[in-house]
Amino acid sequence: MPFDKSAADVLFLKGKYESAAQMYLEGAREGEEIAAFNYGYCLLHGYGVEADADAAKSFFSFARDMEGGESCYNLAILYLEGNGVEKNYRTAIRYMTDAADMGCVEAMLYLGMVYTTGYILSPEITSISMIPFHKSEIRTENIHLITGDSVLADIDEEARFTTVRADARRAFEYFSEAAHSDPTYVENLVAKGKYLYAKCYIDGMGTDPKRETGLRLMLAAGKSGSDDAVAFLAENGITEKLLLEWKKDKKTRN
Questions:
Q1: Is 121 part of a structural domain of the chain?
Q2: How much is the pLDDT for 146?
């Protein structure tokens, strides 16, 4: 019988993890990438099967060309953490780049911060579920990459600083991609991208400084749900009315 993703998802969502995992495994054996990814997710977190990060890596690798970049993102996390594989930051960045290229907003934001700092950070979101999104908050929780915090061991300090070089232009491009991504399922993450994209224009990071453009983008980020953007606007006394007044004054002067 061909793999029935909907039936497997229903079983998973009902908490019948063993049955769902078995169906995903059978689908993976049939060559279904989404089934392989979901079975890898079960293996990674121990849903219906014994947790096995090394085996999960194999299934994520099979599905690494899956549209959306979710498999590549999870592979990147495994290599960042040394979970089931030997820790390798260069390999992690390669998979993270592939994930971003395939549309993964988490990867775009992560790489934007890495190229801002020239430093390998530890992302707050450590995996992405696809069953279909049994814990949607995993993809919509607020992340704190802008702070530059990292919880990786100090023993890795040199490697974290030497794996990539800071590149403001690349950071700007990743934040731009995140800001212009489809917000379905990832509305808060896209809002974070809009905030960081606006900051680039305000601070002149990776692009020519354009404060008015940045402030308009900041307003859009606030309307999209970015708490950081709302706080920035409040701290600087910026309102939509004020920007409209500036625009009128500019036209009058010209």
A1: yes
A2: 47
pTM, 2 dp: 0.89
The closest of 21, 61, 49 to 3, measured between CA atoms, is 21
Q: At residue 152, does pLDDT exceed 90? A: no
SS3 annotation, 192-240: HHHHHHHHHHHHCCCCCCCHHHHHHHHHHHHHHCCHHHHHHHHHCCCCH
Other C-beta atoms closer than 10 Å to the C-beta of 90 total 12
Cα(98)–Cα(12) distance, integer angstroms: 28
* Residue 211 belongs to domain with CATH number: 1.25.40.10
* Model pLDDT for residues 169-208, shown as the tens digit of each residue: 999 999 999 999 999 888 989 999 999 999 999 999 999 9
Number of domains in the chain: 1
